């Protein structure tokens, strides 16, 4: 009888009666003689139970849903909301232990995003703060861009140059399965994550690595990570090298400054430039656009297209080339994602550079971050981006003009064990389907100096750029509609003026509970610095616009 009473109570809580706006007083159930006197959750029954057909026809008042005035289909699904309220009440009243309403609501919001693509996520206040810090370049942690996997483990997108993670030998593609001996679980995805913490404290991370039969134990010291996103040096007289590790607020300005320094070292003019985007998970879309503009005299850079007009934007180059036409080689690998792919695609499609390395990650979507009133944020995928030729690289990536292999790849054992997780956009569960997705495993990580030497050799080969691709040359059927973006509120970062085309206000956060719209970033595959996935997004203080997978860094 106890079981049947509980079942009845749950059924009543899930019934349409639970959704009545004015429930009648609950009736006291009559207890049969001899029946256990276990309290049964109160159940209410409306005097009239609306039918499913009635529910489907009840639109929400225009005052509650202004969009319904313009679009009849813009209605809140009342019947579904009633079902949700029923489940909410059932959990609150009958779950074995009390659960706070705020916790249930947060879980419900997460559930709204759960079956969307991997880059649409709910970020609690601590995680949202960490995400913002990642675009500004300073935080306490070990210095690695990671992507959370379903079991709680973290795939390393890339260790950040010069950080404790890079010095300790953590590599792109490693899978972190434990921290200080404790196996990671999905709950570790909440907040700043286990890799962040006070500087000066060491942590031991358990790592699965391709070719290793057992997890590696790597000790790493936490530090205050101040990411220098741009470094440069001369490879040979006249030939410069610029390493861009991720796209932050100041990255474009730092790039221009480094180019000026290289030109001075070369006597006023460079003969060629290698731009190294290996293991660059992305970041702010606007920063990638500004760098492309610095190297192009004209032509389209990138365009975005989503379901709402504010997501449609087009960025075009303005006159002025910092290199005065000197040849450019862009070096990429499987860790190059989002904003990195935007930059590589823009330069190649405009015949301004050749791309060498391995196929890139394939994150061709833009995320918008919308802050909520309680300090939390929602990062929502709001658009796909298209290269100047009108191609979407979603789940495909950019195929290099010249393919490179890692050192020793030719003699490596093809049967060596591999870390059992995904490493490209196409392999992420629930990823957006791509127009040119081919089901392949993608490219390879290319560490070391050999790829740089190969890029220099390629740079010296004769090459005459053909005419740049202009906006009017883009296939109209494929290229996203041009739109003059409204003033951006604050995307996930990327404030310095980029070729003028800023989407309407929405940052990378996406409103979830009447939040203030923010902008996006082009981040890399759902990543984050040491605690979440990074993705291209737009300036957090601007309108929505994303840039790569630029995950938060731990």
UniProtKB/TrEMBL annotation:
Q: Where is the PDZ domain?
A: 128-211
Q: Signal sequence: where?
A: 1-20
The residue ranges flagged as biased composition, category Low complexity, are 474-505, 515-548
Disordered: annotated segments: 18-53, 391-450, 468-554
Query: Does this entry carry the keyword Protease?
Result: yes
Question: Under which name does UniProt file this protein?
Answer: S41 family peptidase
Keyword list (alphabetical) reads: Hydrolase, Protease, Serine protease, Signal
Q: Which InterPro entries match?
A: ClpP/crotonase-like_dom_sf, CtpA/B_N, PDZ, PDZ_sf, Peptidase_S41A, Tail-specific_protease
Q: Which Pfam families match?
A: CtpB_N-like (PF22694), PDZ_2 (PF13180), Peptidase_S41 (PF03572)
**Assigned protein family:** Belongs to the peptidase S41A family.
* Stretches with biased composition (Basic and acidic residues): 398-408
Q: Do you know which SMART domains this protein is assigned to?
A: PDZ, TSPc
